């Protein structure tokens, strides 16, 4: 029973309620860091780490601080504090371990701080009343979904660089059209769970 | 409203902030990345215009390249020789003598010298005017004088003269090439900063046509080619060219040119050239 519900949460987070293409969260890095598959992958990994860590810490903060003190209305601000600190940490680690990735992510790395996908995920976790296992699965699913969307998108954009486009569509216009078509394609998963 | 209503949020948020702050402070020590102090020093010396004139995007990237020795210390066109000297000191190398290049409009055919083909009433922009059968000037090589280069210049080094020509102030020009790229007539070229004698005509028309259209154009008489004692002037496509490496700025060609299509930097030239 619980095994199947966990599977449902995972599939639902990756495909059906894909954070980028169905919930329209985290569009900024989706468009900004999707010029190369490699950087898109790096961004996906960074977001994955932040999402997983943020989910756990916000869950703890919610259950043991906010609920206990009955100050649930502080949820948003506390969550943002958690996410911001985590992003700072990730930034330091990436700068130390992979400088080229740090450079290619550029300004989008600190922008995970205000990435609504991460905040949205943590808020959804609490809203859906997930327990610790479920929310970790949900976080991983959301992160995989985000990575999947951004990497697919980057691959398409890489190909598009080489294709012969009308001048007016070059660059962002065609990227936006592609994003909308991808979103339509992901609507095909609707009703799967 | 109890006191807890204020105390709890403040304490919990403050406490969390404190914990995360301490954690980050610890992490920043642990994951400290050593930045080459040279990069910061060089970055502070650079003008910070981020013009891209050096060929790399932004002063930060240039500072990195200089510090790693991949870019020359005199690579920044904005800073010029003074900056090159400073950077050379930081890097502990000698400045290799490359000359500063500045942009120059090689057309002197203003509205009183060059005839108009028609009256242009369109957008005040050379690129737009050029689309209308090459602009209103009868000479299709000349400066249209609508100020597209002036608008694109980030350093205010271009001004428009009264007879509708662009004029570049060499002292302000940093050689960022923005005007060279934007000019639809390709009438802006790079010349060495210390070059005083420049042929101010861009026309590849034959001498007869030039005479009909413009009173200050190069008519291809080749008097300058013969007169030059250094053999520094070449002739190609109905137009004379000065080889700046050979030119000694003797001003002989300036005096000989029948249409005054060769310009000296200073009008009262001759005495001053003896000094330089």
Automatic annotation (TrEMBL), chain A:
One of its GO terms (biological process) is electron transport chain. Signal peptide: none annotated. Coiled coil: none annotated. It comes from the Bacteria. The chain crosses the membrane at residues 6-28, 40-61, 73-93, 105-124, 136-156, 168-192. The keyword Ligase does not apply. Keywords: Cell membrane, Electron transport, Membrane, Translocase, Transmembrane, Transmembrane helix, Transport. It is an enzyme of class 7 (translocase). It is found in: Cell membrane; Endomembrane system. It is a multi-pass membrane protein. GO terms for cellular component: endomembrane system; plasma membrane. Its EC number is 7.-.-.-. Part of a membrane-bound complex that couples electron transfer with translocation of ions across the membrane. The complex is composed of six subunits: RnfA, RnfB, RnfC, RnfD, RnfE and RnfG. Belongs to the NqrDE/RnfAE family. This is Ion-translocating oxidoreductase complex subunit A. It comes from Anoxynatronum buryatiense. The lineage of its organism: Bacteria, Bacillati, Bacillota, Clostridia, Eubacteriales. The gene is rnfA.
TrEMBL record, chain B:
Keywords: 4Fe-4S, Cell membrane, Electron transport, Iron, Iron-sulfur, Membrane, Metal-binding, Repeat, Translocase, Transmembrane, Transmembrane helix, Transport. It holds the Pfam family Fer4_7. It is found in: Cell membrane. Residues 34-93 form the 4Fe-4S domain. GO terms for biological process: electron transport chain. Part of a membrane-bound complex that couples electron transfer with translocation of ions across the membrane. NCBIfam families: rnfB. This is Ion-translocating oxidoreductase complex subunit B. It comes from Anoxynatronum buryatiense. The lineage of its organism: Bacteria, Bacillati, Bacillota, Clostridia, Eubacteriales.
